[in-house]
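One-letter codes give the sequence; the fold follows as tokens. An example follows:
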Amino acid sequence: MVTRRDLLFQIAAASATPRRIALTMDDFHWRFLGSTETEVLAKNRSLLKLLEHENLQAAAFFIGGNIEAPIGRKVLDAWGASGHIVANHTWSHRNYNAASTTFEFFSADTARTHAVLEKSRGFTPLLRFPALKEGDTKEKRDAMRAWMKSAGYRNGHVAIDTSDWLYAAEFAKRLAANPRYDSAPFRDAYLSHLRRMGEVYGGLARELAFGNAPLTLLVHYNELNVRHLADVLQSFRSAGWQWVGAREAFRQALYSQEADTLPAGESLLWALAKQTGHYEERLRHQGEQDKLEEGLISNLP
């Protein structure tokens, strides 16, 4: 039995070691990067060159519908050939918690992407649920968990959830209105947001005695990260985080955990904290965080 004294010792020991973080990237809506294949592939190469320079292996979660076109397939092949994890984000990116999304549809949608990815270099049987929604009922949640086990899949959990998609959408609007937009204030706000989320979820990891595990950071494939991923990496490094490979991260015991929560999903750390019943007054749902970030973004030039 773990005593309170033992738990406090574990937390103190974890806080004395370097915090570790791993990069995961979702969706791969390549159309967000440009209107021509030449432009998209050039920006894709810039991302891969950055990660090669940093000697950092990421996990790339592909929506199957985005690799149906030849250009999408080239993006996929480039990430696999560069040594990154290539993983499943379903074909249609449907919210599994929606009443209209049945287990039968969702599992078939996942299997459809698997049929394409399993032939790809770097393929690893990890599934990331769209919007991190893992089932609104016990029946749906448990049915998908059983399907994943039978198919040899593990959950591609997010530890550090973010509103990076919201920042990316607003950044795209500013660029569309002014291609010469000075992104420095927007970049700084974005980096501050990611670091704040790192502190929130890093704190949960320490309190739940997972402080030594590398925490998977969620970002998306978009113009904002094409321009500022190097800044993201440096920003976390300056704040005392150490970047590690995604494959190393997903080997940790933390990512084998399954929270007994409903609706299921969200950040794994958020769900594990909610499961304890001791964090209700402190836990902020990521949807609530998005609302706060909207207010901050609205005040940016």
About this structure: Confidence is low (pLDDT under 50) at residues 1-14. Strands lie at 19-27, 59-62, 85-88, 123-127, 154-155, 215-220, 241-244.
